[in-house]
Amino acid sequence: MPSSPQHAAAPASADHRSPTSGAGPAACPWCGRPTDDVVQTGARRVCCRGCGVQLTWPWPDAAELDHAYADWYRPEGGRFSGPGDAILRVTRGSTAWTVDRIAPDGVVIDVGAGDGHLLDALHRRGREAIGLERDADTTARPDLRDDALDELERPDGGAAAVVLWHVIEHLPEPRQAVREAARLLRPGGVLVLACPNADSRQARSFGDRWLAWDQPRHLVHFTPRALEDGLRAEGFEVRRRGHLRAGQSVFCALHGLVGRVPYAGDLYDAIRQPEARQTPLSGPRRALTAAVAGALLPLAALAAAGEALEGRGASIYLEAVRTGATPTSEPHAR
Q1: Which residues fall in a coiled-coil region (predicted)?
Q2: Domains along the sequence of the chain with CATH
């Protein structure tokens, strides 16, 4: 790879068609380079020539995002059939052990806290924690706040940790979010971050059908190199990195494999409650999809483990410490 993110090349598989001019932000929301020379990489993705992140393009407008996050996406009765929601609670809460172990004393801020599973797990460990969530019911849960990061006051002495768990890819201004995390953290405080890996074997293999593109909800698609370069520029030191810990790798591999089997349905829709599905799915087709998934699960697990060992796993996991150093970047002109 190039020695500088300012000269990062587009992925080798890039399609060099010219994307529609003006179909997204004028500058890359990660590195600030103008987007007038982005490279088409997929049906709805372009690559920034400055840092190598991919952007959803055309960029969704407010109406499209409102539909993408409407009640069907996260209904009150739960998203998943069977034990799915219970498994999600356990996996989301399991991050509390890591955060509690690596962070200094003090409050933990969970950005995109959802139903508060991580907050609950942190409270059980004796940690003070607050969560930020869009349209949060702050009456039912006083530890949830319907605030953006830049609206949050810095805790006395600074926060011990900020968690961006599969959140940064949803944000229209991810670099600003990292900057706000640095503002909120004390020196020595920890940023715990996970997101999909746009440079993974899965992303290359499944192309536009890869589940973790999740468009239009995911706006910015990161590579490990681009993500770490940006964190360092904002005064963070990456202490630990990985792939499997960030979750989703096996399921994304399984989803892609099932999608290649004739007549099988969309696995993600198949495991969701009827009211939470993006497209209807008949009972027989759902049963076929489940059977195919069961048969392919060992292969998906093996593939996910192999790509993680290679350093090309489907998800990126980073632990970064705020060093107290002055950031080397300037806020992007918008």
Answers
A1: none
A2: 1-59 (no CATH), 60-322 (3.40.50.150)
pTM: predicted TM-score of the whole model, two decimal places: 0.87
Beta strand 39-42 pairing with 159-165? unpaired
CA 44 to chain centre: 18
The two structure tokens encoding residue 155: 């805790």
Place of tokens 């993500």: 227
Q: What is the pLDDT of residues 174-219, one digit of tens each?
A: 999 999 999 999 999 999 999 999 999 999 999 999 999 999 999 9
> Is residue 22 predicted with pLDDT exceeding 80?
no
| Cβ atoms of residues 31 and 48 within 8 Å | yes
**Amino acid, single-letter form, for residue 166:** H
Q: What torsion do the CA atoms of 125, 113, 248, 60 make, to the nearest 10 degrees?
A: -170
Q: What is the 3-state secondary structure (H, E, C) of the chain?
A: CCCCHHHCCCCCCCCCCCCCCCCCCCECCCCCCECCCCEEEECCEEECCCCCCEEECCCCCHHHHHHHCCCCCCCCCCCECCCHHHHHHHHHHCHHHHHHHHCCCCCEEEECCCCCHHHHHHHHCCCCEEEECCCCCCCCCCCEECCCHHHCCCCCCCEEEEEEECCHHHCCCHHHHHHHHHHHEEEEEEEEEEEECCCCHHHHHHHHHCHHHCCCCCCEECCHHHHHHHHHHCCEEEEEEECHHHCCHHHHHHHHHHHCCCCCCCHHHHCECHHHCCCCCCHHHHHHHHHHHHHHHHHHHHHHHHHHHHCCCCEEEEEEEECCCCCCCCCCCC
